[in-house]
Design brief:
Layout lengths: L18 H7 L6 H12 L5 H20 L5 H19 L5 H16 L5 H19 L7 H27 L1
Amino acid sequence: MTTIEMTEKKQPKVIKANYALQAKVGSGPLDTQKVEACQKVMDNNDVDFAPMAMDILNKLKQAIDDAKNGADDVQQSVEKMTQPVMELKANAALFRYDLIGNLANVMLSFLEAVKTLDNTAIEIVNAHHQTLSAIVLKKMQGDGGKYGKQLEQELKDACMRYFQKKRESAST
């Protein structure tokens, strides 16, 4: 798997465990029958993901428009764009939209690595938005097969070209 090189290493944030949740649910192995029942519900899920996805995509579009207009500083703009992308990634697999999850994962890596938010970076996020919108509107479930892999690779390549140009312009 190709990864996007980050422009600057970020230190991981260590969060101390909160044992209140464990106290509520207990510890040890889960009841096998309950796990199987939950899996069956997930496998037979027939909820239409499109309305939920379109709501999330509308949030992403608003964040992109705000970034274009300079409504927020770079960090706020990136956070506003990251939130809906994370929501899409988290929900896509549950509704069998693996391609959306894969593309959202690439976009999250891109957004984590962005240090400045220029027009090119915003256009990459906008192209991502348009691609996901088309996938949702056409109800393209699954990983998209050969074309899904191609879309994912194109997004990765666009992100890598962006960072390569940034490195080249920084060194001159």
